[in-house]
Description:
The chain is of the alpha/beta class. Helices cover 42% and strands 22% of the residues. The protein has two domains: 2-87, ATPase, nucleotide binding domain (Nucleotidyltransferase, domain 5, 2-Layer Sandwich); 103-247, 2-Layer Sandwich (Nucleotidyltransferase, domain 5). α1 crosses α2 (67-81) and α3 packs across α7.
Amino acid sequence: xxxxxxxxxxxxxxxxxxxxxxxxxxxxxxxxxxxxxxxxxxxxxxxxxxxxxxxxxxxxxxxxxxxxxxxxxxxxxxxxxxxxxxxxxxxxxxxxxxxxxxxxxxxxxxxxxxxxxxxxxxxxxxxxxxxxxxxxxxxxxxxxxxxxxxxxxxxxxxxxxxxxxxxxxxxxxxxxxxxxxxxxxxxxxxxxxxxxxxxxxxxxxxxxxxxxxxxxxxxxxxxxxxxxxxxxxxxxxxxxxxxxxxxxxxxxxxxxxxxxxxxxxxx
Length: 267
């Protein structure tokens, strides 16, 4: 089995692949105070909950947008399953040209999202990732990462508003009865759901105008299932798109390694 690890600012998601099939997922908080040992114990407990023996995992890959946790989770994976994870970053084969002014500035999760979307759609695409930030990542019809847009995430924007507005109280992030709120809770929920849906549609329209060609749009991330159904532009929702991208990157690097071994054996 392949263990894929996506370290985000808010949550860390673990995925277990049996071939191309995602068999299990686990989601934990990206707690920067946890030690390598704590993450290792937590990972072994999560595997045990699903009845998976650590010895069943024969490979691992990791992407991270939290540098302090990259080393911690790498060590935790080594300790928990005795595997050395591939880390998505410079020097790792992705199969996707990155046309950013400085490719090193692009979050690994954004590239992985783009890889998964292009592999699936085989066309120009925009990936909307509803995470700590809501990101828009654009891919050309030739499979090139073109760049994108970063805006404050749904939860981050709401928390910022509540921290600055004394009379507004925390709410459950859920779908309101209708767009027009008739109480403060529903008004805030409408802003969260329909406001972000309208923002997504508007941003996609502007991106397609700037790019000069239409794109297929796919959404991922923790709140994609809540917001994306209210958009007009999003055609697919896959909360595990990043994990699938990690699987694809691992396959490309595994096949490259096997090819190199084969060439050495013939030499």
